[in-house]
Amino acid sequence: MEEELQSRGRRDILFEQAELYRKLENISVEVLSKYNYQEIRPPTFEDEKLFKRTIGETTDIVEKQMYTFTDKKGRRLALRPEGTAGVVRAYIENSLGKITSVTKLFYLGQMFRYERPQKGRYREFYQIGAEYFGNAHPVADVEILLLNMEIFEKAGLKDKVELYINSLGCKDCRQKYRAELLKSINSRSKDLCKDCHNRMEKNPLRVLDCKHDRDKFKDLPAIENYLCDGCKEHFDGVQSLLDSGDCKYKVDRYLVRGLDYYTRTVFEIKSTEKLGAQDAVSAGGRYDTLVEQLGGESVPACGFAIGVDRTIELMEKTGQKVKKVFIAIAGLTGNLGLAGQAIKIARLLRKNDIFTEGPYPDKSLKAQMRLSNSLNSSWTVIIGEEEMNKNTVILKDMTGQSQEEIPLDNLVADLLGR
Ligand code: ATP
Ligand code: MG
Questions:
Q1: Of 131, 204, 214, 388, which sees the most CB atoms within 10 A?
Q2: Which of 29-43, 120-134, 207-221, 243-257 has the lowest mean pLDDT?
Q3: What digits encode the pLDDT tens for the residues 354-408?
């Protein structure tokens, strides 16, 4: 294929990996529904200004990472680099706050950022996110966190992720902190990388989000000493309610986020295993001023966005894959009696939600086993004349390569129990 036609910096998600994406999406929707979140599907592109005004002009996303374009009428548009801005716009535009005083929404889909492609960082990637409008109490922050952790737990990642939280305070606390931080950073500007030199004057908090050598922050002032009484009380509330919810967390005093709209609580959920250059699998926080800033009423809100691609990588690392059964026929090729029996068994398995492939009566048993192997089946069910007459099957474990003969009546229970 010509080089220009290839998907450089983008990628195709194939087969078993695509199945894992669907699995994580299904788990997420199930958990989100239990917490009474409703789906919203905002457009994938919006007016460029929406992102500039919400994410912040001096953030990496807006400065360097947006895919922007001009349409035929000369409008400046951008592919969405994240989900919250569009959801907040939709919340205001559809007057959702007038329908109920609290609104809980979730979305899933592609985001786009012009970044240097590397493992765990793609130009088109997937997020699953939730936004909770209309509740300023720490219970809302904690609901968002518990919900997020429950999704990871249901995805089999309970021991593979850790929650880090911090408070960025409100506008008032941050102003004081910003001034102190700038002083302190200025005195050590020689330690800073090139990006941080640029960030320093425009947005000193962003220096804390530097990806190089976080040790250098150890003696910079921490925001926690600058929080006003209200913000301190809120952050204490979040911690106490996380304890009540039996949710483990660590406070990271230097955790800031790459977006300007956060107030008070911010968090990151990190993989305990290295995932390429970055290990954050989810992030979010509170944004109490954003709705008003975009022309809505003053409505407090908080939310999260799970990085689906990195979460899938973690699921792959834990050996998760969708388990499949291959039905093979041992006997003369083209034996219709055996093919009929195989179809009956396949129907039975599929009725019980077991992924089933086959039969292939015109292939030799050897060719069938090769196919089963290359399709990555977990088990092969083999039937021959003898088994058919006895109403049994041979169940072969494709990972351990062991096999046993079992009554057909036990097959479903046996497979579901494995
Ligand atoms: P990072 O610090 O890893 O660049 P971020 O602060 O840019 O992340 P957010 O905007 O908070 O990330 O997005 C939430 C999650 O989305 C991240 O924790 C990550 O898992 C995922 N994510 C962000 N950018 C990408 C990308 N380019 N490719 C794949 N996943 C991404
Ligand atoms: Mg980033």
A1: 131
A2: 207-221
A3: 999 999 999 999 999 999 999 989 999 999 999 999 999 999 999 887 899 999 9
CB 207, CB 199: distance < 8 Å:
yes
The label of the residue with tokens 């905002």 reads: 42
109: helix, coil or strand?
strand
For the entire predicted model, the pTM comes to: 0.87
Q: How far is the CA of 115 from the centre of ligand 2 (A)?
A: 8
Would the CB of 305 count as within 6 Å of ligand 1? yes
pLDDT tens track for 231-254: 999 999 999 999 999 999 999 998
Ligand with smallest separation from the Cα of 55: 1
Q: What is the DSSP letter of 226?
A: G
Best mutation site among 310, 311, 314 for ligand 1, i.e. most ligand atoms within 8 A of its Cβ?
310
Q: Which residue has the CA at smallest separation from atom 22 of ligand 1?
A: 307
* Ligand nearest to the CA of residue 283, numbered in listed order: 1
Cα end-to-end span (Å), the chain = 43
196 neighbors 184 (Cβ within 8 angstroms): no
Ligand nearest to the CA of 64: 2
Question: Residue 195: what pLDDT?
Answer: 77
Distance CA 69, CA 47 (A): 10
Residue 7 has pLDDT above 90, yes or no: no
| Beta pairing class for 355-357 and 324-330 | parallel
Domains, the chain, ordered by start? 3-170+228-317 (3.30.930.10), 324-416 (3.40.50.800)
Taking the C-alpha atoms of residue 33 and residue 26, their distance in angstroms, rounded to an integer, is 11
